[in-house]
Amino acid sequence: MKTFLTKKVVFPLFLWKDGLRGFSRNLRALRASQYWTDDRMNDYQLQSLKNLISHAYNKSIFYKQRWDSMGLKQEDIRSFSDFARLPVLTKNDIKEHLSDILTRPATGADLYHAISGGTTGISIDVYNDSDSLTRKHAALTRFEEWGGWRMGEWQSLVWPAAVDMAKTTLKGKLRNILCEKAISLQMAVIEDEDIRVHLKELSVKRPTTIRGFPSQLTEVARYIHREGVLVPPLRGVITTGEPLWPGDRQVIESAFKCSVFDSYRTREVGPIAQECENHDGLHVSAETVYLEIMPLPQVDLTTSDGIDQGSIIVTDLTNYAMPLIRYQIGDIGSLRRSSCSCGRGLPLLDNIGGRLTDVLYTCEGKKIAPVSIIPKLFHLLGIMNQFKVVQEAFDQLRVVIKLPKPPVDLLDRQRKVIEDIFGKKIQVTYDFVDEIPPLPSGKYPFIESRIR
Fold it and tell me: Which runs of consecutive H residues, i.e. helices, occur in 87-191?
């Protein structure tokens, strides 16, 4: 009964009070459209792109001037290949031309402001209108449902950024108790005592799912293994915010004894893609975003299983206040040509391999993406060792490993893997430490390049 009231009354009421109307209608539509045929979804996306381009051309100074300078008119975009002719939007473009990109003043009463995390070194301001946020809330709820959560149920959040979980106002606390029901563990700094207290709270409130960053969840999972903690049954663990490497998935699933659902979400665009129950790629939220993969021939983006990746280019189909058209978000991935046997007609995103800035270099200066090395190191080190690869110079690579120290023969095999990728001239050293500190954001990167 409580779940029904939350779903039908309480949560829609809070959204309505925030100016976000039509949530339930949008969620019902998304539950149906995920089973559309490829042709129907393609028609929908192409028409959505045409509508967005027309709006941006007529309302945004930035896009009109840019496209006019190229001799492009809105009526020239008749197909996906025509759309691919439009120039890519970069983070620097947004930083330098924000006011001209906006289709209405940033001070508008119905605009909602957010700031991207800045993990690429560039933090940007983002504005959404109420309709865009409502549709994104619905898309996000659909993702949470795939992971096992139902509105009105408790969910554990293991998160590095305290600002994302702030429930300090009376309204925020009331909203959390009545509808969001989040049990929060803020882990900018990982402490065993904080993990112990959080796990004890899970035993009391018994959430159905846990959502968090893979690096933080992996540390919680290692604590569970180390201390022999019994965790209440869960339907799923949803990971987001960082790449989910195979070793992370293995240790999390073994600790929580349920499936991990990898999810791709960003501050700028919101929910982009997530795994379903088949875990065979991430279904793109094609009703709200359009994805492209742009080749980067100057970077070795070949995965360990031979798949070529590229730069993810995303167009937000919902945001008419601040159109993000062919936005180079700074992440690496690939689109799957095959479909999922679950029956959903949504495209599949695969092999999200980190940030474009997370690159290492061979002695000759060739760029190497994380997907070429991190899975192999995970395979060698095992799931219980936290590590980071630091490049000091083109010919110097340092592997930082959290104690306990692995066997010497394993380190020798790891050195051989690194030499096979980077060349025989690479000098590999090891540091064994008690702790690997996080970034200010709370994330634990596997790659740190000091080459500039």
Answer: 91-101, 130-146, 170-175
- Domain tally, the chain: 2
Same domain? 63 vs 171: yes
Q: Determine contact, residues 234/261, Cβ cutoff 8 Å.
A: no
Is residue 410 packed enough to be buried (19+ CB in 10 Å), middle (13-18) or exposed (0-12)? Answer: middle
- The tokens 């980190």 sit on which residue? 354
Both 37 and 144 in a single domain? yes
Q: What is the mean pLDDT of each run of 10 residues along the chain (452 residues)?
A: 60 67 92 97 98 97 96 93 96 95 86 75 85 95 96 87 52 56 74 91 93 90 94 96 87 96 95 96 97 78 59 96 96 87 94 71 80 72 73 90 85 88 89 82 74 74
157 and 12 in a common domain: yes
Query: Is residue 126 classed as helix, strand or coil in its secondary structure?
Result: strand
Question: What are the residues facing 432 on neighbouring strands?
Answer: 401
Q: Is the peptide bond before 232 cis (omega within 30 degrees of 0)?
A: no
Tokens 């402490």 belong to: 191
389/386 Cα distance (integer angstroms): 11
The helix (H) or strand (E) run that includes residue 260 is strand 260-266
Q: Residue 173: what are its φ and ψ, rounded to 5°? A: -65, -40
Same domain, 229 and 194: yes
| Final residue of a structural domain among 354, 387, 403 | 354
Residue-number span of the structural domain to which 242 is assigned = 1-354
Let me know whether 60 and 16 are in one domain: yes
| 43 and 185 co-located in one domain | yes
CA atoms within 13 A on the CB side of 409: 0
